[in-house]
Amino acid sequence: MHFRVILKIIGFLLILIGLFMLLGIPFSIYYGSDDIPALLISGLGTALVGAILWITNKMEFREEITKRDGYLIVTLGWLAASFFGTLPFIIYGAIPNFTDAFFETMSGFTTTGATILNNIEAVPYGLLFWRSMTHWLGGMGIIVLSLAILPILGIGGMSLYQAEVAGPSKDKLHPRVQETAKRLWAIYVLLTLAETILLMFGGMSLFDALCHSFGTLASGGFSTKNASIAYFNSPFIEYVIIVFMFFAGTNFTLHYFALKGKPFNYFKDSEFRFYFIFILFVVLSITLYLDIHNSQPLENSFRHAAFSVVSILSSTGFVTVDYERWAPFFSEIFLVLLLFGACAGSTSGGVKMVRYQILLKNSLLELKRLLHPKAVLPVRQNNEPISNHIISKIAAFVLLYIFIFLFGSIALSITGLELSSAMGAVAACLGNIGPGLGSTGPATNYANVPELGKWFLSIIMLLGRLEIFTVLILLSPSFWKK
Amino acid sequence: MHFRVILKIIGFLLILIGLFMLLGIPFSIYYGSDDIPALLISGLGTALVGAILWITNKMEFREEITKRDGYLIVTLGWLAASFFGTLPFIIYGAIPNFTDAFFETMSGFTTTGATILNNIEAVPYGLLFWRSMTHWLGGMGIIVLSLAILPILGIGGMSLYQAEVAGPSKDKLHPRVQETAKRLWAIYVLLTLAETILLMFGGMSLFDALCHSFGTLASGGFSTKNASIAYFNSPFIEYVIIVFMFFAGTNFTLHYFALKGKPFNYFKDSEFRFYFIFILFVVLSITLYLDIHNSQPLENSFRHAAFSVVSILSSTGFVTVDYERWAPFFSEIFLVLLLFGACAGSTSGGVKMVRYQILLKNSLLELKRLLHPKAVLPVRQNNEPISNHIISKIAAFVLLYIFIFLFGSIALSITGLELSSAMGAVAACLGNIGPGLGSTGPATNYANVPELGKWFLSIIMLLGRLEIFTVLILLSPSFWKK
Lengths: 482, 482
Prior knowledge:
Two copies of one chain form a homodimer.
Chain A: H1 3-21, H2 25-31, H3 36-56, H4 67-84, H5 87-92, H6 98-109, H7 125-153, H8 176-201, H9 206-217, H10 235-248, H11 252-259, H12 265-268, H13 270-293, H14 298-313, H15 330-337, H16 353-371, E1 379-381, E2 384-386, H17 388-414, H18 419-430, H19 451-465, H20 469-472, H21 477-480
Antiparallel strand pairs in A: 1-2
Helix pairs in contact in A: 1-3, 1-4, 2-7, 4-6, 4-7, 6-7, 6-19, 7-8, 7-9, 8-9, 8-10, 8-11, 10-14, 13-14, 16-17, 17-18, 18-19
């Protein structure tokens, strides 16, 4: 383990985070809010701690980072960001309780969007901007993590989706990571700006438009309004957000190809087709149900269905309507949707479509294999054969995910939450979605979750965001042996 | 396909079934019930149809049966049994509706135990005996199927648990099947007799003791009483049934070794240990909860917890208490338990412990594999390494199972059932357990499920009983090609 290198990198991260905290100040000045001292102290303090770590830890030129260092950097990075990220909330006093502040910031950096704030609109502008910024920074981290770092670490059998970097057999982080990251971030920034302009066109202020674009592209879900997107009462804004939530759930390399003039690559990608058709099917089914049972215009039913489904499946968590009130069984339907997630290589959380798709293909192929026991019939994804080794890795991930969901729900319910709400909360936090069910559902928030439950859910968010194994591996004794 | 051989075997099966129908007549005579004509007509009629099929279809001596024939025989066998098995109920008029009668008989032969009878005690003795007999015959079929036939057909990656027969590479049914089946049936009969004697010792009549032993060893769940086991109000009887339900959920080859003087083989088997510890953990947790929240003696809490948990996990479905009323969240807990099942090679249904165990081991090993990417670290079960090929087969099965559970629940809810009851019903029928949740739960039955839903659930029971693939493969076009 190269602890000095690790500390130096965490230091660098904290300098960045500190500087980003200051970006809310212009809005504080413009709106005359009184949170400038809190932002200044937090931002400069965080950057100072970062600078000390950076300066005191020397790294030899081109010192190589191992996989183990990688695991530790990723988990420590998210923890350090969530820890220092609480400072503005605590110093200002908007969230005086540390547990709450940590939950809120972890929810931000993991792009979950679960909130403990009962009155979001009472929080000053600069802090709200920082709150949405945690999403955006978390999303940036996830893009480079999921498309460049995790495949090298070999997590969850996703390495095959990574043409840009070397396979999982290499033990060193690849230098091309930086190149890949830069390109993907450019797309991320571009999409954020595009949505911001469209939202302003739809009537949002620059402030609201930026905050909601941060929340959308990161598939986060923090809003600046108590009523979330319902506040704006604008079909145009809702459609814009539906489209960009859908984009946020798409593999960013596909956006990259589209911008390079290959827009048809979207539908050449097997996972994207699955994602698209799955959403279409669920949205149209729910639209049909709502149209039969509600006396609203068809467009209304479609918009509410599309917004809710895309919001949950992309793991964003914005809300326009309390879908649990459509009918009692929608709680169960949305509980299932909470366990999906969108595409790999996006900012979305959860299991991801491609894992289910490959396992489902494997299940259906099994019928053929039984009929032709001597034939070699591998699952194919984008025309590439997928080995049983990868299938076994994917199965390992999905089973562990469901295991954590089930036992986490029971554990959380012991802290005092009703079991169905606990199931919703764990599914929503593990999938980095935000709103769960019942007392943690779309019509409410996480304020009333018991203290212990908030810590538990903070860890669950981190586990989900870092694809479980990245965090769990740190608990393995053999990780720490030479 | 050797259709003549297939028909001949189905004919043989029907002769047996017809003869077994007559076995209830002594009880009808003893109790003076008026169902003797119905049993005679049904029994002799079924045997006659069987005899015609047997005689008109010639089979060359030692004509070989292929795997494809095997699939067809198994599915057709269960369908034919369930079809002809309805005759006594319909001719007598105890269940005049064919849908209901088919549901009840399929529930019997698949050892599910879900009933549509609102007043079981109004049904005459001979018919009730036949009803319990369908369980027992179904259980006999399952033992030979799961331990001798399915491994040859290569279903669900279970072939490795079969030391007695050849591996899945052979294309012909192994002649040793007969030998294995005989030994296992002897154990099945022995255990049934042992339970019958103990239940009589506990105060049951021979009739009730036999019927309930049939229901226990087959992990069925049909009772002769409306209140199921609660009727007898006898802790002794409940403990006897707990133990035998537990036995019914144990791999029958372990019983075989035990009877050959190797009782310690139970705990040498990895799946058995998992099954045992899992049950112990759940029972003790629930006992603790009940002891804290109910003002009953500890023994009461333990007995009710043990009975309910063993009944569901062994996929039997006998009832002593409405566990859904312990607390609202017990519905969710039992819904999860409905998705487990007991040991492979037992009469229990569902996914089975060993599949979850292997997948779970695979998930935990993944952490080690990430740390030592170059090491070969296979999952081991009973000290045998398990290839990724098998892991992929098991994942294929489990995913398909959960997929059918989820989409089946939604489909069933469209027929008019509330979604949570539909989920309970599909989980309970797919796992061949019996009582589901809510309106199909332990305190009620399946009488009010809509007509279409009953057909749907009948198919679900068959799918679950035959480990899904056996049935689905018949729907594949390439199955029917030369």
